[in-house]
C-alpha cells in the first residue's frame, strides 16, 4: 500500500483526494483556463518525466503541452526498451534514479501495482496517467466538463453505459461519489463487464457521505433514464486480448449508445466519451458528431485540469 506521506503529494487514485481538495483543484483549473497568461512561467526550470507502457494521444500531448505552457519541460520515455521494460531493473530502482533528475513523474502503465511501487520509492510527485485499474486524470477533466456544461456537480445525474470493468468507470465511481453526482451504470452482467467489487464498495462509502447514489443495472435504458449526461468508452481497452473482440462486441452490442438510447435521457442530455471512439461499435456516429456531444470540450479540459494537477503537486 502507498504510504500516508505519499498520498499528500501524488495523484494515484481519486480515492486518496478529499472532496474539498477536488473542489479546490477544479477552481484552480477554471482560473488557469480563464487566465492562462498568468501561469505561463509558473513551472519555469521544472522537468516532468513521462513514462509510457501504453499508447497515448491525449495524455501525452496534453501533459507535454501543459508543461510547455507553464514554462517547464517534459521528457517522454518509452518503457518498452528500457531496463525496466526489459526486466533488468525494478520499478523501485527506476523511481529512485529518476527522482534525482526531475521534479515529477507521470506514468502510464499496465499494472497499478507497478504504479504504487513507483510512488513508494520516488522522492518526487507521481501522477497516474492511466493503469489497468484507474484513470484519475480523465475523471478530473470529466468533472470540469460536467461543471461547465451543467453549472454544478452535486445532484447531476450521469449515466455510464457499456463495459464498466475498466479504469475510466472506476475513476468515475470515485469522482462522482465524492462530488455528489448520481451515477447510474448500465453494463452486461458478470465480472468481465461490471466494476471491480472493491472499488464499487469503496465508492458506496464515499457516496454515503456526499449524498450521491450509485447503481449498477443490466438494462441500458434503465441506466440512461432521466440522465443529464450519458458517457461511454471503448469496448476494447488496451489490456484486452484481440481474441476477445468478437464475443465482447456481441455481448456489449445492446449497450451501444444510439440516438434511440439517448432519447431515454433528458432532451438536452450531453454526451461524453474519453476517446478514442469507435463509430459503429460502442456508439453511433450521429451521437458523437451530433449537437449534444461535448467530447472535444471534454478532451480540451484534460489540458486545464492537468495544469492544475502539475501546479498543485510540483513545489
Q: What topology emerges from the helices and strands here?
A:
Layout: H1 4-7, H2 19-34, E1 47-52, H3 58-69, E2 73-78, H4 91-98, E3 104-108, H5 112-121, E4 126-130, H6 136-150, E5 157-161, H7 167-179, E6 182-186, H8 197-210, E7 214-217, H9 220-224, E8 229-232, H10 245-252, H11 259-262, E9 270-273, H12 285-288, H13 295-313
Parallel strand pairs: 1-2, 1-3, 3-4, 5-6, 5-8, 6-7, 8-9
Distance between the termini: 24 Å
SSE series: HHEHEHEHEHEHEHEHEHHEHH
- The total domain count is 2
By CATH, the superfamily of the largest domain comes out as Aspartate/ornithine carbamoyltransferase
Number of H- or I-type helical stretches: 13
What is the fold-level CATH name, i.e. the topology of the largest domain?
Answer: Rossmann fold
Strand order of the biggest β-sheet: 7-6-5-8-9
- Silhouette: globular
Q: For this structure, what is the CATH class of the largest domain?
A: Alpha Beta
Structural class comes to alpha/beta
Number of strands: 9
Mean pLDDT: 95
- Helix fraction, binned, reads 40-55%
Q: Specify the biggest β-sheet.
A: 5 strands, parallel
